[in-house]
Amino acid sequence: MPKYLSITEARRQLLDLPDELKDEPVIITKHGKPVMAALSFDQFESLLETLAILSDREFAHQLRESREDESEDNIITF
Strand, helix or coil at 73? Predict the structure, then answer.
């Protein structure tokens, strides 16, 4: 479950945020509503890589078919 911080709290804890972000993003709120997310650089890179993979239509199609085969037990094991 992500941690929520107000903008004021995030500003106060800015120097400590990198340690907080190791496990999961922090949601930053303004007037109680989420307005941004802070995440570690590793998480950011992973997100960009995932988006790049999923935007490859052929790969996404193959992945979808694989998942359908798996859910229908149409898999071959060695």
Answer: coil
- Whether residue 23 contacts residue 42, with contact meaning beta carbons closer than 8 Å, is answered with no
Closest to 3 (Cα-Cα) out of 12, 22, 31: 22
| Residue 56 Ramachandran class (φ > 0 left, ψ -120 to 50 alpha, else beta) | beta
Q: ∠ CA 62-66-68 to the nearest 5 degrees?
A: 120
- Residue 44's pLDDT band, with cuts at 50, 70 and 90, is very high
Task: Output 21 or 45, whichever has higher pLDDT.
Answer: 45
- Per DSSP (E only), the strands in the chain are 3-6, 26-30, 33-38
**Tokens 């078919």, located at residue:** 65
How much is the pTM? Answer: 0.66
